């Protein structure tokens, strides 16, 4: 099933939908940093085949949405944007699950702790950005705020696309995608990531709804220890973690990705 797309909220956002008749549940996908919702066509197709309606949106400043490219000046805005999208989803007396990848995983987690999971029946995270890279010294973390304020558009890091997937064709597709932001992450954006990671870590214990968190053990883009920390500290009685040995960051695009899809679909089936 192909997606439908429309501009919403005074043309600020591109909303993409993959709907089925009489859905078992709804799933809202929140994509990662610098990418866009169309990259989740295969994930949505797998969910459609099992009877789920899927929604996704290009986040502010990314993909086909409006705004300065890949700039996050205030993380609260990202969470509020997602809250607006959640309010637009037609529930039809079925459950709503969130699925966040990478930075999308951090946004989903912050929504859960900020709004006490309002309107959400469970969530799924893949390669979530929940803990800084261990190679980043405490000193650099401390001065990140100062640099972010004084030099907000200073380029501080570039993404190495070869670390996304061990499937060379997936990496080539990413590099050639005109809707992907291929520039440097700016200082203010990096600081917002760090600040929000620390914020949610202190509140992992407040999470009580069901969740599934998955990560590749060889992920060099987001720290797998963040997923383990979430699993260890969350108060949810129903929580599951899956670490894929030797896998890279985009586990939905790894050579053995069917294992990822099976894990996600099995988890959903048991909770619908």
Describe this structure in words.
The protein has 272 residues and is α/β, with parallel strands linked by helices. It has a single domain, classed as Rossmann fold (3-Layer(aba) Sandwich). The protein is built from eight helices and ten strands. α2 packs across α3 and α3 (103-114) crosses α6.
Write the CATH homologous superfamily: Alpha/Beta hydrolase fold, catalytic domain
Characterize the overall form. globular
Number of helical segments?
Answer: 8
Query: Which fold name fills CATH's third level, the topology?
Result: Rossmann fold
Q: So, CATH architecture? A: 3-Layer(aba) Sandwich
CATH class descriptor name = Alpha Beta
**Count of DSSP strands:** 10
How many distinct domains?
Answer: 1
H-E order = EEEHEHEHEHEHEHEHEH
Indicate the low-confidence ranges by residue numbers. Answer: none
* Structural class by SSE content: alpha/beta
Averaged pLDDT, please?
92
Sheet with the most strands?
8 strands, mixed
Largest beta sheet: strand ordering: 1-2-4-3-5-6-9-10
User: Which percent range fits the helix content?
Assistant: 25-40%
Radius of gyration: 17 Å
Percent strand: 15-25%
Distance between the termini: 22 Å
């Amino acid at each position: 099933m192909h997606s439908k797309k429309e501009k919403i909220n005074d043309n600020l956002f591109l909303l993409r939908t993959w709907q089925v008749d009489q859905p078992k549940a709804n799933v809202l996908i929140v994509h990662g940093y610098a990418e866009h919702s169309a990259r989740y066509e295969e994930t949505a197709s797998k969910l459609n085949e099992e009877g789920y309606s899927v929604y996704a949106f290009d986040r502010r400043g990314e993909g086909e949405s409006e705004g300065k490219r890949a700039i996050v000046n205030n993380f609260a805005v990202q969470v509020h944007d997602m809250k607006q999208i959640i309010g637009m989803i037609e529930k039809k007396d079925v459950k709503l699950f969130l699925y966040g990848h990478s930075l999308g995983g951090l946004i989903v987690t912050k929504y859960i702790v900020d709004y006490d999971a309002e309107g959400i029946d469970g969530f799924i995270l893949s390669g979530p950005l929940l803990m800084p890279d261990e190679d980043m010294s405490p000193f650099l973390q401390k001065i990140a705020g100062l640099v972010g304020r004084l030099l907000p558009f200073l380029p501080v890091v570039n993404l190495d696309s070869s670390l996304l997937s061990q499937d060379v064709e997936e990496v080539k597709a990413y590099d050639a995608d005109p809707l992907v932001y291929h520039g440097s992450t700016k200082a203010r954006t990096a600081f917002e990531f760090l600040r929000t990671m620390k914020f949610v870590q202190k509140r992992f214990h407040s999470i009580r709804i069901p969740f599934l968190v998955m990560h590749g053990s060889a992920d060099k883009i987001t720290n797998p220890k963040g997923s383990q920390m979430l699993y260890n500290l969350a108060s949810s009685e129903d929580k599951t973690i899956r670490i894929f040995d030797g896998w890279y960051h985009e586990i939905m695009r790894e050579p053995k990705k069917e294992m990822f899809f099976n894990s996600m679909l099995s988890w959903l089936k048991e909770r619908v």
